[in-house]
Specification:
Bound molecules: N-(iminomethyl)-L-glutamic acid, fe (iii) ion
CATH superfamily of the largest domain: Metal-dependent hydrolases
Shape: globular
Distance between the termini: 16 Å
Radius of gyration: 21 Å
Oligomer: single chain
Largest sheet: 8 strands, mixed
Number of helices: 15
């Protein structure tokens, strides 16, 4: 199967190779070709170039992209898209003055979602989750990471991970699964965190790893949830089971979790709304990707990740949605990119790099996704006819995505 895009106003994020993520000032560079063509063959990017030098192709399906931009699809490296029901009541409670922490202390929050999920059948959970996945794909997401962590029992964590596996089997985009059993302490273990960690490490992890249900391990390292010491324990056990760390850290408090994550060679550290100078120093000598989740900051009215401090320190940065029922009931990467520009003072080039190349790194798929590179998957966004690519973040809240392709197939 061949498909050719012609008269592309700008072909964005063109790279000969992408061996490493983009750091510091490299993030401002967004290589492109004006007035371009791109050929897809067997689901991959086969070739591309300038219209002035287009070879003759016969019998190939054509898309006229006049006035439109073609770019790699968004990569969402941090979501909790598999969940049951919603938490609208907590949204109202926060409007009326309660904080996210206060709601959690009252038995709301993550354990509220866990209760709902435990009561939901695997089939129903799949139907709810597939609907969300289709919705975000239409908005340009062409690779996604999904976490467990709303189960909090062995049975319910396995149920979540099986739903993630079924999504991976039934949809064409890359889907990566992360085991986040250490998301919150379940009520049954309220006064026995050790007991829960023992269950997680000795029972859940070997089962999950044994069935190949996850590739990554995550923990919510935060006051009132899991400590730095717990983080060491869980990440160490994860690694023994072949799971690579990717953690929730520095959302409300900086308690030293970034250092712990880096010591375990975490692929990414996510949230980072609260950063200390020493956190930046620790990241400088690492291969760990910082990931910002600005729509979580918007929804909870908490600080935004200090993107300028991170990038200006010479570090890389990725962007993701955090799509989940409590802190971010929204999986729109376009909004994330707008918020990164508006609230975190990232330039459009930096935001696009953060949502493609660096996001691919944070998901472990940089060798196959995240840029317009020969041989990579033809996971693409074709925009409407718009004045510039910067118009995407500028026109926040609007949808300028004309069509989305996964492995060269229009979805
Ligand atoms: O990434 N911070 C921890 N976990 C999720 C939110 C969980 C929830 O409120 O349901 C997050 O924001
Ligand atoms: Fe999260």
């Amino acid at each position: 199967m061949k498909l050719i895009f012609k008269n592309i106003k700008q072909l964005i994020q063109v790279r000969e190779e992408t061996l490493k993520p983009l750091k510091g000032s490299e993030m401002k560079e967004l290589p492109l070709i004006d007035n371009a063509w791109l050929l897809v063959e067997d689901g991959k990017i086969a070739d591309f170039g300038k219209m002035s030098q287009i070879p003759t192709f016969e019998g190939v399906a054509e898309v006229d992209a006049s006035g439109k931009f073609l770019l790699p699809g968004w990569i969402d490296s941090h979501t909790h898209l598999v969940y049951a029901g919603n938490r609208e009541q907590e949204f109202i409670d926060r409007i009326n003055g309660l904080t996210y922490e206060e709601i959690a202390e009252k038995g709301g929050g993550i354990v509220n979602s866990a209760k709902k999920l435990q009561e939901t059948s695997e089939d129903d959970l799949y139907v709810q989750s597939a609907k969300r996945l289709e919705e975000v794909m239409k908005m340009g997401t062409t690779a996604i990471e999904i976490k467990s962590g709303y189960g909090l029992t062995t049975e319910a964590e396995l149920k979540m991970l099986k739903v993630i596996r079924k999504l991976r089997d039934n949809y064409d985009l890359p889907v990566k699964a992360t085991f986040l059993g250490a998301h919150a302490i379940p009520p049954e273990y309220k006064n026995d965190k050790e007991g829960y960690l023992n269950l997680l490490i000795n029972e859940m992890m070997p089962k999950i790893a044994g069935e190949g249900l996850a590739e990554y391990v995550d923990i919510f390292c935060e006051k009132g949830y899991f400590s730095v010491e717990d983080t060491h324990r869980v990440l160490e056990a994860g690694k023994k089971n072949g799971l690579t760390p990717k953690i929730h850290v520095n959302q409300f408090n900086a308690i030293g979790g970034i250092k712990a994550a880096v010591e375990h060679n975490a692929l990414s550290v996510d949230h980072l709304e609260v950063m200390q100078p020493e956190d930046l120093e620790v990241l400088k000598n690492s291969d760990t990707m910082p990931v910002a989740l600005p729509s979580c900051s918007l929804f909870l009215s908490i600080p935004y990740t200090p993107a300028r401090d991170i990038i200006d320190a010479g570090l890389p940065l990725a962007l993701a949605t955090d799509y989940n029922p409590g802190s971010t009931p929204n999986g729109n990467m376009n909004l994330v990119i707008s918020l990164a520009c508006i609230k975190m003072k990232m330039n459009p080039e930096e935001a696009i790099n953060a949502a493609t190349i660096n996001a691919a790194y944070a998901m472990g798929i940089l060798d196959t996704h995240g840029s317009i590179t020969k041989g990579k998957a033809a996971n693409l966004i074709l925009t409407d006819a718009i004045p510039s690519y910067g118009f995407l973040p500028y026109s926040f809240g609007a949808n300028h995505i004309n069509s989305v392709y996964v492995n060269g197939k229009k979805i």
